[in-house]
Structures are given as C-alpha cells and as structure tokens.
Amino acid sequence: MSLKNVRLEVMQFLEKDVDALIEKYLIPIETIWQPTDFLPNSEGPTFFEEVKEIRELAKELPYDLWVVLVGDMITEEALPTYESWLMDVEGVGQVERNGWSKWVRHWTAEENRHGDVLNKYLYLSGRVNMKEIEKTTQYLISDGFDIGTDRDPYKNFVYTSFQELATYISHNRVAKFARERGNKQLGKMCRIISGDEMRHHNAYSEFVERIFKVDPSQMMMAFHYMMKQKITMPAHFLRESGGQVSSAFEEFSNTAQRIGVYTSMDYIEILEKLLKRWEIDKITGLTDEAEKARDYLIKLPSRMMRVAERMKIPENSFEFKWVEPAKI
What we know:
The protein has helices spanning about 5-15, 20-25, 45-60, 65-75, 80-85, 100-125, 130-145, 155-180, 185-215, 215-230, 250-260, 265-275, 290-310. By secondary structure, it is an all-alpha fold.
C-alpha cells in the first residue's frame, strides 16, 4: 500500500473521534468571546470617549511593538489561505464533507476573530497607516504560501502543532508588554487570543499523538522532514506595497526578536516541548529509517542552540510603511 493510501486510511480511522475533539478543544459560538467584547460599542453613548482613551493609551506603546502587532494581525487576516490549504489535505472532505472538514471550518471560525479584533483596534488606535496594512494583507493572501507540507496530513499536523504554539508565545508576550505600559485593554485582548492559540496547539498535538499510536514510523519521518527543512512561518512571503516579495518578513522577524516577542530560542524551546509531549524517546516499533530520524530530532535542539548563540540581530528599527515615523 502506498504512503498516500496509508495516510488516508489513518485519517479515516481517526475521523470517528473528531466530533469529540471539537467538543474538547473548541468553544461553542454562543459562549466564546467576540471582538466586540474588547472594543468600544459603536451604538453606545460613550463610544467617542472610549476611542479617545484607546488613542491616548496607544501613544505609550513603542514603534517596534506596533510593528509586531501589525505583523501579527496581518498573519491572522490571511486566514482564507490557511483554510483553503488545510481543506486540500488528504483525508479532509471538502466536497463530500466529513469530520475533518468540520474541524477545519470550526477552527477557522475561531481563528477569524483574532484578525478581526486586532484590525479594528489598530484602526481605532490612530498609530498606523491602515491603507498600507490593507495592501500588505491583500498581497499576502493573493501571493499564497508554501509551508512545505504538500497534502500530507502528518506534515500539516506537525506544522500546526508548532505554529499554534508559536502564535501563543507571540500574542502572550505582546499582552505582557501592553500591560507593563498601562494598556490593560490591549493586554487582555492579546492574552485571550493567546489562550485560543494554546487550545488549538493542544488539539493539533493530540492529532499527532494519535497518529504516532497507529503509524509511528511514518509519523516520525514526517516530523523529521518538517524540522529538517525548518518550520516556515505563514507570513513568510510578507511584503509591503510597491514591490515584489521583499525582506519585510525578515525585518518583521528581526523586530519581534529585538524586543523579545518571538526569538530563535523560542523556536528551539517549542521543538523541545514537542519532543517531550510526543515522548519521542519512548516510541517503539520504528523502522531503521525512522530510528535514524528520531536520533536526528533528539539531537537537533542542541545543534540549533549553537547556531542561535551566534545570531546577531540589527539594533536599529526598520521603517515600515505600516507605522509612520512621524507618529512614533
């Protein structure tokens, strides 16, 4: 049987539990938070006063933090790309709907709120150039992305397990910075977004755990493949208006690293957490090839640590079109 057919068989075998996983990890629409819970009520009598407060508090946040907020928001707003990608994964029934496509739709619906609330907050803040942000978002969606997973569910679930934990870290750190500078509203907003990301990370990590139990060697090979080629961030093709795919993502990453929102050390720690969570060192019944893959994965964090220690981050902030220097 081909690898593709085996994966499809495993996905069909696990599908029976998807409804229970949705109930475990996702929150019903009627009870989950919505963006309006954190934003001024446009129908209320104090709307303009609340907007004025947002704009006053926004003045206390530094330029680099705004860059990170914008990059995080644009990444969240590119959700149509991510949903269409996952809907094409082997075993996900996009046309003839099945449990996996139900998961993707419900997960997307939860994620959609993140970009929505951050977009509205940035618009009200008066600190950013919304038209430039909107152009970047449209570029990111129209350019598409390639995270190196093909249509392989194993690789995709490794990717989402990693990426959801990375977004948890980023949003949680922004929340901390905002609170330290007296912006409790933004802090609470980003903290609750990070909570969603952690739930989603736990869900995708459980998907991988379940696959390890029924197809350990190929799951190990998929994990090895994804880590060897490195996890590509979803906004890797980020660009500003007026040009081709540029260094915008690199500069955004430099900014996040410079202020400690998301660093190369975080990348390594995420890998270590996945190795521990999936108990990679204890998995049995592996082929010789999968044993070599496991050995590579176990040694990888220390190798990456040596590289990270030599990295130099530019000290000066890159001037993005998103956040105008005149408004710093």
